[in-house]
Amino acid sequence: MKVLKAAEMSSADRRAIEYYGIPSVVLMERASLGLFRAIRDEFPYAKRVLVVAGKGNNGGDALALVRHMHLHGYKVDYLLPLGEDLKGDAKLQFDILLKLGKEPLKEFPSGGYDLIVDGLFGTGFRPPVDEKASRVIVWINSLGVPVVSVDIPSGLSADKHTIYEPSVRADLTVTFAFPKVCHVLHPAAKRCGKVVVVDIGIPEQAAEGVKRWIIGDVEVPKREVDVHKGIMGHVLLVGGSLGKTGALMISARACTRTGSGLVSVGVPKGLSHIFESSLVEEMSIPLPGDERLDEKALNLILSMKDRFSALAVGMGMDRYKEGQRIVCGLLEGWEGPLLLDADGLNNLSDGKCLELLKRRKSPTVLTPHVGEFSRLTGYSKEYILENFIDLALEFSTNYSCYLVLKSSRTAVATPDGKVFISLRGTPAMAKGGVGDALAGVLTSLLGRGMHVEDALKLGVFLHGIAGEIAHEKLHRESIGAMDLVECIPEAYKRIENGTVTDSISLIV
Ligand SMILES: NC(=O)C1=CN([C@@H]2O[C@H](COP(=O)(O)OP(=O)(O)OC[C@H]3O[C@@H](n4cnc5c(N)ncnc54)[C@H](OP(=O)(O)O)[C@@H]3O)[C@@H](O)[C@H]2O)[C@@H](O)CC1
Ligand SMILES: Nc1ncnc2c1ncn2[C@@H]1O[C@H](COP(=O)(O)OP(=O)(O)O)[C@@H](O)[C@H]1O
Ligand SMILES: [K+]
């Protein structure tokens, strides 16, 4: 499913109408019928409904809904609190209602409804909201009755993750053709409640220029009957330092659970006994270094490059001068797929060798959380959160790398300008080590030779589902990164069986 911004949506609308010849009232009729069905399914008990309509096409959708409800025996009232001087398709809907004898309420009612429908503003809204509309939005939120927003909660901008005040707090948002940015990114998405997308007949080609998708259609690679461990990938994970050995172990366990044929950890010799005694299936390679990796480890790692199908660097590595030289040296000399996480990213920022990314011939994957990304780019965390998708894309295309930007949502941006957004996962995953698990999952999939884009989409999705399962089985407060790793098998099963429910459903 693609995710659009307001201008892209209006150009898709225009293309549907002007190029494909679908009359705009047909689109509005389908939008309002879908809205009607979604409300009937979600709120079957709601028979007394108040619809609040604005003056644009969002109001038009809402007025067409009033007609469907009226003709199906609902006790439905409507308000036009911003004025009755409507134009275009919205006026057409208003005129039909008047001919049916349905007049708008002249005053704000004091209550008596099971449900409020918010059709004040949709994609045509540009914040900030004016005085008059502000009062209406505040009033809707004060009623203490479930609210359904048409297209977007009025007051939000379709393009932004930001919560503008005031804006409607919806329990259900029914959007049309494609979800918009505000439906998928936090915190704005919290104002939308459950999101349902109605197919209103706009062909997918009408938005062909948009390269932003929600991750949903992932495929688990087959394991042929005649495989042997040598072709399922031998991955090398480099990192670990005194006090931070666990991070690398979590990544290593995640690799094994994700399916790697062989997993090795490259660790400071002084700490290798810890890995030897804690890891069972995974092997350890002692590298120069006592409490953390010595710079001499660099050449040794490079000398082993033919043995490994993918390399991940940085989990529990520590942030220090020699670490910077190791990371920059690996960027320059390692020829296979390379993933940088945690201190691998911090050492990259501190070592100021980002330009090396552009020169790499094999795929490079960076998996920063917002703090690490802030160090890499110099942008503030607030600015990154406000421009989450666009900045991920800016970085991946500028530096010719794959960027997995992690927050409550995760964006996978590719060097050729695509972005895939994961809506999976749960707040229970906001724990130390969960990112190390993701680094392991992704490295494992890269190591078995999957197409990089497919590996990242599957890995991020699988990790999110594993987190959801751990949350479900244990408790949101109690899960740790290793619980998530132990749920990877069940996550694989659910993806293969098709039993993962969509985060945003599409109705026709
Ligand atoms: N074929 C189609 O096109 C389809 C479209 N569809 C529907 O159309 C919706 C988009 O409709 P839209 O473009 O008419 O804009 P909409 O969201 O109703 O808002 C415009 C109104 O808001 C006002 N306004 C704006 N900013 C404001 C502010 N800060 N403070 C106060 N007022 C402000 C603005 O006032 P103006 O700027 O004109 O003075 C105008 O009156 C879309 O969300 C979907 O529901 C579906 O039916 C599917 C087919
Ligand atoms: N509220 C949330 N909802 C969904 N996923 C989350 C949430 N908070 C964190 N996560 C996920 O958990 C992981 C945390 O990674 P990271 O911040 O790198 O942790 P660490 O470095 O401690 O391992 C990321 O994959 C992130 O997307
Ligand atoms: K609305």
Automatic annotation (TrEMBL):
Cofactor detail note: Binds 1 potassium ion per subunit.
Molecular function terms, GO-annotated: ADP-dependent NAD(P)H-hydrate dehydratase activity; ATP binding; metal ion binding; NAD(P)HX epimerase activity
Record keyword Metal-binding present: yes
Reaction it catalyzes: (6R)-NADHX = (6S)-NADHX; (6R)-NADPHX = (6S)-NADPHX; (6S)-NADPHX + ADP = AMP + phosphate + NADPH + H(+); (6S)-NADHX + ADP = AMP + phosphate + NADH + H(+)
Gene3D superfamilies reported in the protein's UniProt record: 3.40.1190.20, YjeF N-terminal domain
Cofactor: Mg(2+); K(+)
Keywords: ATP-binding, Isomerase, Lyase, Metal-binding, Multifunctional enzyme, NAD, NADP, Nucleotide-binding, Potassium
Job of this protein: Catalyzes the epimerization of the S- and R-forms of NAD(P)HX, a damaged form of NAD(P)H that is a result of enzymatic or heat-dependent hydration. This is a prerequisite for the S-specific NAD(P)H-hydrate dehydratase to allow the repair of both epimers of NAD(P)HX.
Name of protein: Bifunctional NAD(P)H-hydrate repair enzyme
